[in-house]
Structure formats: structure tokens, C-alpha cells
Amino acid sequence: MSKIIFNADDFGISLGVNEAIFQAYQKGVLNAASLMVNQKYATDAVALSQKMPDLDLGLHVNLTNEKPAADPSKIRLLVGAGGKFKNGFVKLLWLSFIHPKALRVQVETEVEAQVLKALAMGVHIQHLDSHRHVHMIPVLFDVFEKIARKYQIKRLRVINECALLTMRTNKGWSFLFDGGLVKYFLLRALAFLNGAVSKTYFYTMLYTCKLGPDRFQNVLIPEGFDAVEVMIHPNITKIDAPHPEDIFDSNVLSPWRDKEFETLCDPTLLQNFHFGQKYPLPIALYQKLEKIWFKLPQKIRFLLVGGFNTVFAFCVYAFLLRLLSLPYLLALILQWLITVNVSIVTMRYYVFQSRGNFGVEYAKAWGVYVWMFFFNSLFLSFLVEICHFSELWAQALYLTVSTILTYLLHKYFSFAKKIK
Q1: What is the extent of the structural domain holding 171?
Q2: Could you say which of 68, 115, 124, 221 has the lowest number of CB atoms within 10 Å?
Q3: Is the pLDDT of residue 223 over 80?
Q4: Structure confidence at residue 1 as a pLDDT band (50, 70, 90)
């Protein structure tokens, strides 16, 4: 049966937010909330939740603001000298590349500490998400999946919104100017890299934190989804305004928070959700082509994807060598830096359909390409300096002979874990 979930984030962040959630549950359509256990009014939020027996209460893991639940000495990457979290989304994303193993261990320590704190407060955690959507970062997403399995948490938020469907019934273009579109594309790209799948549709990232009643005049949910989650941030700001010292994020006092509270108090919104909608033509066409694509044998897919990547790499090399007149070894280095990431992503999904941890597989694949780079540079130097081949055709010859070796290294080393 289709289910409409209006989920209020930031439960416990302030008295105004807590009261808004309570009233929206009693008077309106709110039926879920995500608790921030390391906030000042988390205990108050849990007490209020006892008066909302049908509330789907989850955990809003916070890794970016205020103090952690774990011992700060065990999570040095996450906290600063004052014992408070020191990283935003971008910094955590960067740390996932330069310290992936240490970050994974420390994030798992903190996430589990927050889970245990919620359980100790008497919370039955029914879903899991995060403040600032940091759980969508690949290294962190793997941790959240592990924690969800360990504690049998049923639902983990996945950003899977179809922007074309959202824009079909919403005429505002505010997302072009307030960062909504950038945030959407970033989170959708990370969801793709994570291989994240959910039967719960997410609506709406494009207009996040600006959800007035006009955003619910006609909500289209694509076919294949059993439920839809609306992430919303209600508040009664007049309650919090006299206590600015309690507010670490000025957005909590935004007039839009009051607007979203008013939106939740309108029960007629539920009539405007329509499940089982067809995807727009470009996406529907892509899905059909993808089904045909994955019916092809893996070796054929590799030849096609590898052929594309080879031609792309050769064109970049030729551009750097001929048009920019760079030395051939410098052109080779820059070509590898530009094209390797494209090759990793396309090989991982379109050839091997891997479902392993993206961070681990990304590191393995880069290891393969680093080894192949040294082989490439030696091969190229030999052909150019000893055999007097043209720099262009020497690289073309290398790309041809390296294809089989690349396939075997990726198949049995980089991307060995398949999608179930």
C-alpha cells in the first residue's frame, strides 16, 4: 500500500522545532520525525514523542554541529580542540578521499554512539538519515548501511528524486539561485556511486527548506515506489527568538520554517500525491536502453565501454600533444588525471555492475591505473626514443595492447563484488 511520509528533521534542536513537530502531528499531516540526540532539547523531544504514539521516529545523525556522543579522543578527525564537530559536508567529502580508512572507523564510532544514546533514551529507531545529508558521502554511506543492518533499522534515506517530474508540476525556479540544483545533482551523483536503492521516493531536494503549500499541488511519484518521503523543517520561530544563544544555525529562525509548519497543518495536501507515474521521455528511454545494455555479455560491454574510454583518452592526449604542444610525457600525465575517473565510474557500473564499497573500489581501481601508468610511460618512451615512433601512434598502440590486461585487473581485483 502506498504511504506518504512527512518527516520533520532536526527534532530536538530547539524548543520551537519540538513544539512545531508536536502541533503538526496533532493538527496536520506530520507522521515522522528524525531525532538529533546530541542537541540541547533532545530529552524534551523524546518526552513529546511519547504523546505521539503513531510517530515514525528515526535518528537524524549529526556529524557537523555541536558536541559528539562518542569520546572526542576517539574521533580526532571529526572534532576540534573545543570538543565540538569541526567539519561541514565538503570537508567530510574531502576527508573521505585523503583519510578513508580512519574516517570510516571514526564515523562508525560516532554513529553507533548516537544510536546507542537514542536506544538508551527509549527510542525505537525506525529510520536513519543525517544532518546536511553527510551519509550520502560514499565512505560514510557504507557505514550507515552497516549500522542500519546491525540495529535492524528498516529505512535509510536515499536521495532518488526525479527532478524532471518535480519541475513538471512546480513552476518556481528558485533552485537556480539558492543552491538547490547544485545540491540535487551532487547528492544524486553520490547516490549513483553508492549504488543506493530504496522503495521510498524522496521529494523534494530542489526546494529543500522552502516547502510552501504550492509545492504540493500535484506531487508525482514514479512507478516502482511503495512510499514517498517529504523532508521538511518546521519551527515556531517566536518560541526560539528570545533564546538566540540556543541556536547554532541561523536557518532555524528562518521565516520559511514557520511557512513549512503552516504547510504541515494542511490535511488537504494528502489528496495531491499520485503514485505510479511514468518517467519523462528522456529518462524512460534511458531505462529501456539500460535494460537492453545489461542483457549484453560482460565482455561485449567491456569492449564497448573500453572502446569509448580508449577513444576518449586518445583524443585528450592528442589535444594536449598537438593543439597545446605539450611534451609527450606531460601530455600523458595530464591525460591520465583527466580520463581515469571517467573510466573508473563507467567500468564499475556499466561493465561490472559492482556493488562493493565505492571508496575501497575507487582506491583499488586507481591502484590499477597507477601501475598501468608506469607501464604506459615506459612503453611510450621505448617506442618514441628507441623505435622512433610518432608520439601519437605510439600511444595508440599502447592503448590497443593494454585492453585485455585492464579488463582482467578490474574483473578480478577492482570490481569483484556484484550487485545482488
Answers
A1: 3-278
A2: 124
A3: yes
A4: very low
Please name which of 226, 110, 101 lies closest in space to residue 160, comparing C-alpha atoms.
226
User: Do 227 and 320 fall into the same domain?
Assistant: no
Asked if 366 contacts 349 with a C-beta cutoff of 8 angstroms, the reply is no
- What percent of the chain shows pLDDT beyond 70? 99
Cα distance between residue 397 and residue 281, in whole Å: 41
Residue range 41-55: average pLDDT? 96
Distance CA 67, CA 227 (A): 34
Residue 237 scores a pLDDT above 90: yes
Q: For residue 371, is it within any domain?
A: yes
Higher pLDDT, 329 or 11: 11
Domain boundary among 278, 303, 333: 278
Same domain, 56 and 99: yes
Query: Could you give the CA distance from residue 400 to residue 190 in angstroms, rounded to a whole number?
Result: 32
CA gap 111, 250 in Å, rounded = 25
Res. 357: pLDDT tops 80: no
Q: Report the predicted TM-score, pTM, of the whole model to 2 decimal places.
A: 0.86
- The confidence score (pLDDT) of residue 413 equals 87
163-184 pLDDT, tens digit per residue, is 999 999 998 899 999 999 999 9
Domain shared by 103 and 230, yes or no: yes
Same domain, 12 and 107: yes
d(CA 187, CA 166): 16
Indicate if 331 and 242 belong to the same structural domain: no
Work out how many domains the chain is built from and give that number.
2
**φ, ψ (nearest 5 deg) of residue 350:** -80, -15
Determine contact, residues 102/141, Cβ cutoff 8 Å: no
**What pLDDT, on a 0 to 100 scale, did the predictor assign at position 83?**
92
CATH of the domain at 32: 3.20.20.370
> Mean pLDDT over residues 325-340, rounded?
90
C-alpha cell at 335: 591525460
